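Postdoc handover notes: sequence design on the structure in folder B. Input tokens:
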């Protein structure tokens, strides 16, 4: 049975066309993938389905009836629940309080029945085998992956007939990813519709029966997943055939050490890391989720207090804050894990986000040179192909891929030559991924030293010159050449975990 029918959906923001002639049809009992580059209109479309924004044109039907939700609550009442890539949890509330927010079980006198709330939460976790943290934990104390799982649980608590998952696995480690993929199939088997958005084609092939592709705000094609190859999907997304996702791995490392670590430790999460990162090298960091990757990057950028010795370009340094890390050409710059919370000021313009960290570069005698600022901004917009209407467009209105490009631009403007890239392609479309990988190789060829973590293991295997594998907060191995493979990395990452 056709559950959702969308015909000719359009949405404009002034002169910007977000959707034009978008069609989408999906059945109850299926996992239906929705693909497209960042900025193709996917987010706008699912926000229309979820009642967050209203279209300028077109028709929507839900289970054969006209569907025009006035707001998000109306969409929820109609049976549509969405898990967006950018999370909406309240940090100061507990897991249970977030899940049942504004739907709390109340006593006759209007007080919240906390025990019943916790019991309902545990029953929800049990029903869907949700690997979630304890109901009483505050959300602010959770990892990004745990917050993602709580957001999924919150959507499931409404028992929707349509559930939208927007890049829901991008923040999840492998075990939780497999849980969500199986859950999607189980929900479809119950007769629900799962609209699944992901840039990981292997996931699409594993669970989706059909795939619809958007490009430039319009529907390009709908395919049976089993009958279409990856090259056709990518060509439909990009409007062209892509030669290759990963650029050739050309050796550009020199003998000069850019970053030297000896005995680097962070609390009880990271212990005695000895590592040398060379000029012109892309070094991958791999390991099971939570085995010290985040602590390593945070220590090197001064976010976490560390012990041990750090040398930058041959000089001992003490990095106690990001200010200590960002010291011009000899410094260290970071692309953080959560771009919206830690990488951007969403309510500020693209221009302000790009230049905030480098104001002295266009200031003389206390006065800002607008022409110099404009030249720096225009250079980054052009070099990184950032799709913004104007430099004054708010960063929060950009697509995920363009937001990530702004963070890269901001990082490059610091002129730091040691770059820490923490999961830089999370939630990014395949075209933008290719651009980022080529940028990394170009920067390495110019003498930048890059430390690179990805939750998508094939990226590390295909991009890194060497790979540092962490296990239980310690350096398990450094791999190079033919030793860099998914099998070898996982073996080094898991050997002690299996023995335990």
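Designed sequence:
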């Amino acid at each position: 049975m056709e559950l959702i029918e969308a015909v000719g959906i359009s949405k404009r923001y002034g002169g910007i066309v977000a959707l034009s002639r978008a069609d989408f049809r999906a059945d109850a009992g299926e996992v239906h993938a929705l693909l497209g580059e960042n900025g193709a209109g996917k987010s706008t479309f699912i926000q229309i389905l979820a009642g967050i924004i209203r279209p300028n044109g077109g028709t929507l039907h839900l289970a054969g009836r006209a569907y025009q939700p006035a707001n998000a609550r109306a969409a929820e009442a109609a049976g549509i629940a969405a898990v967006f890539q950018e999370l909406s949890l309240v940090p100061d509330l507990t897991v249970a309080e977030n899940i049942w927010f504004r739907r709390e079980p109340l006593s006759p006198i209007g007080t919240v029945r906390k025990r019943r709330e916790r019991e309902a939460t545990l029953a929800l976790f049990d029903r869907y085998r949700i690997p979630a943290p304890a109901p009483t934990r505050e959300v602010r104390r959770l990892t990004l992956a745990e917050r993602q799982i709580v957001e999924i649980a919150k959507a499931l608590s409404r028992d929707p007939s349509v559930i939208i998952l927007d890049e829901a696995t991008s923040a999840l480690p492998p075990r939780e990813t497999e849980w969500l993929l199986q859950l999607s199939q189980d929900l479809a088997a119950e007769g629900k519709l799962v609209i699944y958005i992901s840039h990981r084609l292997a996931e699409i092939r594993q669970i989706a029966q059909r795939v619809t592709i958007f490009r430039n705000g319009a529907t390009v094609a709908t395919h049976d997943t089993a009958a279409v190859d990856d090259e056709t999907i990518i060509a439909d997304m990009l409007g062209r055939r892509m030669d290759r996702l990963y650029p050739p791995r050309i050796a550009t490392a020199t003998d000069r050490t850019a970053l030297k670590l000896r005995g680097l430790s962070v609390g009880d999460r990271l212990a005695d890391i000895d590592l040398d990162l060379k000029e012109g090298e892309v070094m991958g960091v791999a390991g099971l989720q939570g085995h010290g990757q985040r602590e390593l990057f945070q220590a090197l950028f001064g976010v976490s207090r560390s012990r041990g010795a750090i040398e930058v370009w041959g000089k001992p340094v003490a990095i106690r804050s990001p200010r200590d890390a960002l010291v011009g050409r000899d410094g260290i710059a970071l692309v953080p894990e959560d771009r919206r919370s830690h990488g951007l000021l969403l309510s500020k313009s693209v221009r302000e986000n790009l230049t905030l960290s480098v104001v002295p570069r266009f200031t003389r005698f206390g006065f800002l040179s607008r022409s110099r600022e404009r030249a720096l901004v225009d250079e980054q917009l052009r070099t990184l192909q950032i799709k913004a209407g104007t430099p004054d467009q708010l960063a929060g209105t950009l697509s995920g891929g363009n937001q990530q490009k702004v963070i890269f631009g901001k990082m490059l403007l610091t002129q730091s030559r040691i770059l820490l890239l923490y999961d830089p392609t999370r939630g990014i479309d395949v075209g933008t991924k290719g651009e980022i990988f080529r940028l990394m190789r170009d920067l390495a060829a110019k003498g930048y030293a890059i430390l690179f973590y990805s939750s998508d293991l094939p990226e590390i295997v295909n991009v890194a010159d060497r790979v540092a594998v962490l296990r239980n907060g310690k350096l398990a191995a450094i791999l190079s050449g033919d030793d860099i493979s998914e099998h070898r990395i996982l073996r080094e990452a898991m050997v002690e975990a299996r023995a335990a």
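Context for whoever picks this up: The first strand starts at residue 2 and ends at 13. Don't rerun without checking with the PI first.
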